[in-house]
Amino acid sequence: MTGAGVPDEAELRRRVGRLSLEQKIRLLTGADFWALYAEPDVGLRRLVLSDGPAGVRGESWDERDSSANVPSATALAATWDTGRVEAIGRLLAREARRKGVDVLLAPTVNLHRTPYAGRCFECFSEDPVLTARIGAAYVRGLQRSGVGATVKHFVGNDSETQRMTVDVRIDDRTLRELYLAPFEAIVRDEGAWAVMAAYNGINGSPMTQSPMLRDILHAEWGYDGLVMSDWTAAHATEATAQAALDLAMPGPATLYGPWGDALLEAVRKGTVDEALIDDKAVRILRLAARVGALADAPAAPELTLAAPDSVTVAQELRAAAAAGFVLARNDGLLPLPRSRPAERLGPLGTDRRLRVALLGPNAETARTMGGGSATVFPPYTISPLDGLRAAGLHVTYAPGVTSHLRAGEARGPWLLRPDRPFDAGTGAEIRFLTETGELAGSELRDGATFLWLSGFGISGITEPVAKLEVRCVIRATVDGEYQLGVSGLGRYRLLVDGAEVFDVTLVLPEDTDISEALMRPPQHLVPVRLGAHQSVAVVVEHDVNSSAFAGLGTLMQLNLVPPHGSDDEEIAKAVALAADSDVAVVVVGTTAQVESEGFDRTTLALPGRQDELVRQVIAANARTVVVVNSGAPVLLPWTQDAAAVLLSWFGGQEYGDALADVLLGDVEPGGRLPTTWPASEDGLPSTQPADGVLTYREGLFIGYRGYDRDGREPLFPFGHGTGYTTWAHESVTLDQAPAGASGVAVCVTVRNTGSRRGREVVQVYASRPDSAIERPAKWLAGFAAVDADPGETVTVGILIAERAFQHWTAAGWSTEPGTFVLAAGPSSASLPLTARTDFPPITS
């Protein structure tokens, strides 16, 4: 046995030896979109994978199969709290077990090379040390609970543009010191059970057939886990088989991927050695044993399961969201009191509750997760409006502006099921029709977005489906012009009260990314005039064979835009509410159409006229808090005029309650920035390839390293954040590393100089004055968090590992002998304490 009772190499190879070549090759491609084949001859049961970072979706893309929605990766990294992130990993493991999932396709440990990258929200940080520490904690939480983690995307998938084909050019030193560093720490030191090979290539070789898989993962890091492809990323039969790729996803091989019969033929011809096939099969069985999917191996640990809407899950997600909120600016307005200021009370003071104008497009429908593979269906979502009202404040609300550039999903109170159009039952009926028009089955759905990735079996349909019908009732709330339509691919016919409104075929441009097809497919809308309370029967017909969602299934969505005022009218309403309130809280942010997997951002500006809304509200009420609901940096040109700015990321299903906790001071805003927040778009690395090649010309100088080199000032520096108390950083001393560890121990003493208990994140940065090699001005070397009562002094120890003093050369890792500076403080831009150390240590 190896590890926690896992069968040893010899036993695994004995089991593989029982299989025919056909059986072994069958194991190497998924049985369907999410699962691996069972193989009774070796005791292997079906093994299930699931998309991950924001929650555990499971095998169906269905709002009825709900999942706990955890805060985004940027929100988790902003906690700088490995213990809390490990607890989130344990929560996700319980969710995985509840949904029959063995392996989670997370965490994503690519770096924030540039804030333009559409998937920044799914990655932790711009810094490899912070990414490694947070990612390792996430993996520990999952795997100690018996659920496999898949560290992705190995490597260089740091943007979305042409990600399926782009060749990323990274020099060896930058590759090792930045982009491979989190993978090395998590794979080599933490023992991740699976790694996902990325779509892109590195320096001329697609990652699914890259020599890096064998040379670095296997030979250098001693990795004994499994390497799977990103979905549809494996193409060449022999090259991928000869590389250390073990699993091609999705399946089956007759529909996807390059293996199956083609690989069988390659082995029989002798162009692929059968020993390579055996090694891949061994790694699949080892993963199965680790998650409890292999007979005569230990079962996975017993876990206490809880529903995603349970009180225990809610409490943990609420605390995690608040712990990641970054209070970037505060002139003393926060925390808010619950009662009105005395000077604003009326003659009788009948309602003493604080009067809050809650404004902005994300106040009533907040973003709690990013788009793409991070999408799950939470059992509920607490919006800022829900949270502040539940906290007992007197809240008035106005959206202010429209930020969405596309029509959203039809929803309540307008969308009603056709079987009960006069009660509160929102949703639609789907009917599955055969080629002859016979009814193959039907189902009632709660929403209006429908996706089938592996046929219609998940809906219980066994016959071939030629046509879908979506039936619902749209009931108007007010008189006006409603925009009604569909999003998807293929042919759609819309009927309203039996009359055809349109018959269109929607197509995507060539070479469109799979996830872009998923997150922002083509739309077609038409105006429909409805009187107040008028109901109309709506039917959407879709020809299934016309859609072939990039060969991956069927997608369709019913869209509805109710009547609304112009932005000028809505801004005027918001300003009036702000002027009449004690405090204004403006919630601005991104949309799924500008921040998502599948495409990069072309601008960091907030969509629509949100900046104008903020400026006018601040002019009407100086006591304005701006809450930024985005997964990654956006431009905030009005920052210096706002009384407070709170960066809240994508906060998960408890977002609104966590926001109320922080605004009212019931909970400390615990976050510190895991990524630099730019003041402008000047000097940022590009995501746009040239002739299929994306060169990382900035080298080592991403994030704060680039700002230091160029002498530019960001809006908010890496590591920045404040709470509701103040701190003095008093002293720093150095000591020898503990026995068995190599490096330097840094002891930092801080004192809470404020009037409240609080939390501080002590950060230590290394630098090398007068270095003979090119280096950043400083780089994060270690960190630790402290909690203290008012007036309390705390000393925290931080181990600075030997790697922090090393750089990569053609001969491997090397240390330039001499004196390094270790500087400590609350952020990369505030380092009041310094100490010097010789490394390697000088010995007599």
Blueprint of the fold:
Layout: H1 9-17, H2 21-27, E1 35-36, E2 47-51, H3 73-78, H4 82-98, E3 103-105, H5 128-143, E4 148-154, E5 167-169, H6 172-179, H7 181-189, E6 194-197, E7 201-202, E8 205-206, H8 211-220, E9 226-229, H9 237-242, H10 261-269, H11 274-290, H12 311-324, E10 326-330, E11 355-359, H13 384-390, E12 394-398, E13 415-416, E14 428-433, E15 439-445, E16 449-452, E17 467-475, E18 480-488, E19 490-496, E20 499-506, H14 514-519, E21 523-530, E22 535-543, E23 554-561, H15 567-579, E24 583-589, H16 610-620, E25 624-629, E26 644-647, H17 655-663, E27 693-695, H18 704-710, E28 727-736, E29 743-752, E30 758-767, E31 779-788, E32 793-801, E33 806-809, E34 812-815, E35 818-825, E36 833-839
Parallel strand pairs: 2-3, 3-4, 4-6, 5-7, 5-27, 6-9, 11-12, 11-24, 24-25, 25-26
Antiparallel strand pairs: 1-2, 7-8, 10-26, 13-17, 14-15, 14-17, 16-23, 17-22, 18-21, 18-23, 19-20, 19-22, 28-29, 29-32, 30-31, 30-35, 33-34, 35-36
